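Table S5 (text form). Sequence records supplied for joint modeling of the two-component complex.
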Amino acid sequence: MWDYTNKVKEHFLNPKNAGEIENPDAVGDVGSIVCGDALKITLSIDKDTNTITDAKFQTFGCASAIASSSALTELVKGKTVDEALKITNQDIADYLGGLPKEKMHCSVLGREALEAAIANYRGEALPLELAGKLVCQCFAVTEEMIRKVAIENHLTTVEEITDYTKAGGGCGSCIPEIEKILKDIWSVKAPEETPKKPKKLTNLQKIALIQDVLEKEIRPKLQADGGDIELIDIDGNSVVVALRAMCVSCPMGGVTLKGIEDKLRELVSEELKVVEG
Amino acid sequence: MKPIYFDNNATTPVAPEVLDAMLPYLKEYYGNPSSMHTFGGQLHKKVEEARARVAELIGADPEEIIFTSCGTESDNTAIAGAVEVSGGKRHIITTRVEHPAVMNFAKHLSRKGYRSTFLPVDSLGRLDMKAFADALDDDTAIVSVMYANNETGVIFPVAEIGSVLRERGIIFHSDAVQAAGKILLNVKELPVDMLSLSGHKIHAPKGIGALYVRKGTRFYPYVIGGHQERGRRAGTENVASIMGLGKACELAKAHIENESAYLSALRDRLENALVKNCPDSRINGDTENRLPNTTNISFEYVEGEAILLRLDEHGICASSGSACSSGSLEPSHVLRAMGVPFTLIHGSIRFSLSRYNTEAEVDKVIELMPALIKDLRALSPFGKKI
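The corresponding C-alpha cell record, covering 663 residues in total, follows.
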C-alpha cells in the first residue's frame, strides 16, 4: 500500500485538465505503455507573450502518475514558456505534498513531458536527455537523463536513480553503468548539501531564522494540504505554534508537529522543541 | 465501510468458528504442551487432535503433518531438507511461476553452488512437460512444483509429475498453499512426498502453516532446537493457532464440494460479466483447470494500480500484477512467464473469492467496473485506440 498524500488522492480521483487540446501549440509525448507509464501533454500558448494559456494531459499509469500529470498542468498554466521550463520534478512532487520515494519517477515523467512539449513549440530537437543513447533499455532512460536527475535531486545511489527514473529497475544489467555515471558526477562535484545551519545564534537571530523557516519551508506545504501554522511564541528553545484548519482534526497532527520540529532542528538548532499552544 | 473483500488468495478472514476454537488457548489454557504437569501436558492431546484434522483434509496420517509458522517456512523446510539428505546432489527443479517462498529459496541456493532450473509455462500458464522431462538428471535433489498458482489459479499436473519422479526416486514437493481446502486433494492417491499448507489462506490466522511429509521420505529439519514435532521442527507449539488451523481444515473438509460449486458459480458470474461489459479485457490463465475462487483479468490500456485505488474508493479489495502495485518496477513474474504482453500485464486484476462473498458483492463490482475502466481509459493517451 503506497502512502499517498491527500493531495495525490484528490488529483488522482478528480484529475484537473484531463484530455487533449484541439489544435494545440505544443505537444509533449513521453513514456510508453510497455514501460508502464506514458504521458501526453498538450498546451495552448499565446504567441505574443509566450504564455501558456491552457494545458491538458492524458496519462497511462498509476495513481501518482495521474496525480503528477494533473499537478503539472495546474503548475504551468499562466506561466511563460521560460518560467515553465524552470519547474523541476521536485516542484511537482511538492505541489502534491510529496510522493513516496519509489514514485518520484512519476514527477520526473511530468517534467520530461513538459520539456518535450516546449521543444516541440520552439521547433527544437528533443533535449538530449530524451533523445540520447539509452543506458537502461528496459525503461528507455538515457545517460543525460540520469545525469540531469541525479544532479538536480542530489542522488548518489543506484536505488535513488531507480526511484527517480526507473533506470536499473528492470533486468538490472545497466546497474554497473549507472554506478559509473554516479561516480563520474560526484567525483568532480560533491553532492550539494542542504543549507548548513549557522553555528551560534543570538536570540534575535534565532527567532528571525525560525520565522523564516516556518514561512518558507513549512507553511507552503501545510497550505497545500489545506492547513496552516501560526507562530505564537518562542520561549528559550520551545517553539510554540498553533496548527490551523485541516491540521487540527488531522490524526497525523503529532507527525506534523514532529516534522516541523525535525525541520527546525535541521535548519536552525538541534535543541529546539516544538509544542502546540 | 465494510470492505468487499475479493483478495482471498492474499489472505482470508478468520472464520468465527476458528476464532472460538482458539480463544481458550489464548486465555485459560496457556500451558506448554511439553510440560510434565497436567495443566500444560493436557494440551499435547489437543495439538494431536488438531493434527488429525489437518491430516484428514489431505488424506494424510497425523504423524505425517508437521506444524510450521507459515507456508514460506514449509516451503523452505521442504527444499532445504531435501537438499540436505540428497547425498551431494546439487540440482533443484522448480517453475518460473512459483511463489517467492520457493523461487527465491531456489535462487538463494543457486548462489551457494546449487543449480536451479525454472521450468517454463505456456501462454495459458500450463507447465511445459517436455521441459520438465528434459530437465531431470541424476544430480536432481528435489523437484518443487506448486499445486495451483496464486495469481491465475491455474492447477498443475501434480499427479503426472509425481509419477515420473517416483519412478526415478527423486523427492517431490508441492506448494499447495492455494489449493488445499479449495479443491479436493488426497495424498493417498497423489505421488507427492511433501506438501506445504498455510493457515491464513483457509480462514485460520496468519502465522501458522503445516508441512506434510510422507512416511519414509528422507527429511532434515530446518528450524533446529528442541524436540517438538518429533524432532522435525523445533520451537514451542503455537497452540492457539494450531487449534485454529485444525478447525479451519475441519470446516474446509466438511464443505469443500458445496463451497467449490458456490465459488465457481460466483466467480464465473463476475468474470463473464466483466469480460462482456468491459471492451479490450481478457482472462489470464487456463480456464479449464483452475481454482474455483480465482480469476485474473487484464484490462488493456489502463494501469492496475489506478484500477485498484479506484475500487478502493468503494471499499472493494482486489490485487494486480502491475509493476506499480508490486513495490518493485517489475510486473508479475507469473504473467511475464506466460508471455502476456506488457500492455495487458499492467492492467491485470485478480479477484479471489471466499465462502463469505455474496452475489450482491459480485454484482456491485459488475456494476462499477465498466464505468471505472472507461473513465481511466478516457484519461489515457492510449484510450483512443479502443
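Note: The first strand of chain A starts at residue 26 and ends at 32.
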